[in-house]
Write a structure and sequence with these properties.
Mean pLDDT: 81
Low-confidence stretches: none
Radius of gyration: 17 Å
Helix content: 25-40%
Number of helices: 3
Number of strands: 0
Amino acid sequence: MTRSDIWGPESVKQCVAAGLGLSLISEHAVVDDVRWESLAVLAVSPRPRSRPVDLVCRRDRLRSPAERTFMGVLRMIGSWPRELSAR
């Protein structure tokens, strides 16, 4: 058996789409691929735990209007991404 390291979600998705194996990958990375049916979501039991997303910024720097807006959007979102249905 040969082992290789694949870096980045796009590389992983291309390998899976080429039939080289399976992968556990963040749902947000495959939303369009699932919609276009180039990849499928399979049920995994037990389901992997969700991981929190943290926003890190410097305290000693004023934030731009775009940064403040982005932070506001993050605070309003209850759950992201929406869960994809397994086939």
